[in-house]
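Retry 2 of 3 after timeout on previous attempt. Resubmitting structure tokens to design endpoint.
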């Protein structure tokens, strides 16, 4: 067992695919397959259950993942201890408001406990502005959602075409939030109000609703109107007042003091990705990825929960 095999194992566990893991690691697919098989033979357990091209961790695989990640943590910690000039210094992170409010506090608290010397700089924005920003080099990495095809197609090739690398981070249940006593909605025609409360243009969740409503933008002359607000608190207050409907992650509703008579129904599931430039490497960023991959298997909202 060596660190290279453990890195490959963790990548396959995260990507749930040998093909995607090979692409992420810049290795040939046959090499990734062989290393996983060698690790299983060495441990004398099956680490993955295979269904077509999908690779899912077995119970033994989940146990092994925890050990593998800790071993990789210790290896990186030892390397940095021997090379203090390479100690991570600063990490600039962009995030959607929902991710910053509901997901990052726990993740960054653990990160700071392990790497207190890293200066974290957090900025809030829409998914579009954040992706543009990381492409320009304004951020080291960003947490964004991709609303293309309502989450039914892997967006990572689209990011790769822009010279960006995307890692799945969180899975969000999006709720259609309606005024008190509003009937159940199954299609746009069921909506009794025509005004959407949302963040500014470029918000991925707003784009989800625009796709569902069958429009490319809420332009002048459309039957649908938008009230642009700057916080979920303001959005939910507008919905409670009866003037708007909105789309909101369940994780945000769990944090807010939402009026009991507001109506909320499951609408869609969208993945959040951590995106960085394809050639970006730093110790601080690698550590964030490691913590994130641990959270993917151990925390509510993690991609494999």
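Retry 2 succeeded. Sequence:
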């Amino acid at each position: 067992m060596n660190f290279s095999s453990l890195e490959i194992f963790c990548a396959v566990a995260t990507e749930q695919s040998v093909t995607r893991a090979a692409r992420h690691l810049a290795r040939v697919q046959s090499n990734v397959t062989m290393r996983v098989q060698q690790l299983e033979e060495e441990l004398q357990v099956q680490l993955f259950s295979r269904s077509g091209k999908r690779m899912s961790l077995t119970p033994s695989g989940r146990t092994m993942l925890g050990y593998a990640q800790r071993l990789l943590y210790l290896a990186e910690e030892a390397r940095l201890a021997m090379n203090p000039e390479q100690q991570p210094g600063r990490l600039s992170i962009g995030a959607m408001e929902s991710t910053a409010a509901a997901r990052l506090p726990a993740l960054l608290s653990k990160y700071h406990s392990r790497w207190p010397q890293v200066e974290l700089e957090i900025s809030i924005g829409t998914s579009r502005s954040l992706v543009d920003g990381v492409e320009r080099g304004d951020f080291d990495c960003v947490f964004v959602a991709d609303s293309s095809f309502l989450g039914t197609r892997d967006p990572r090739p689209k990011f790769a075409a822009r010279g960006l690398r995307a890692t799945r981070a969180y899975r969000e249940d999006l709720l259609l939030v309606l005024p008190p006593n509003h009937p159940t909605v199954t299609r746009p025609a069921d909506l009794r109000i025509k005004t959407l409360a949302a963040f500014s243009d470029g918000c991925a969740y707003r784009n989800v609703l625009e796709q569902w409503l069958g429009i490319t933008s809420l332009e002048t002359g459309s039957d649908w109107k938008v009230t642009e607000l700057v916080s979920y608190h303001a959005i939910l207050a507008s919905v409670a007042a009866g003037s708007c409907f909105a789309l909101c992650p369940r994780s945000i509703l769990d944090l807010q003091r939402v009026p009991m008579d507001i109506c909320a129904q499951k609408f869609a599931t969208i993945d959040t990705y951590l995106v960085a430039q394809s050639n970006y490497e730093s110790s601080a960023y690698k550590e964030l990825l490691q913590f994130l991959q641990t959270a993917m298997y151990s925390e509510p909202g993690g991609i494999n929960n």
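Attempt log closed. The chain has three domains: 3-80, 87-170+271-298, 173-269.
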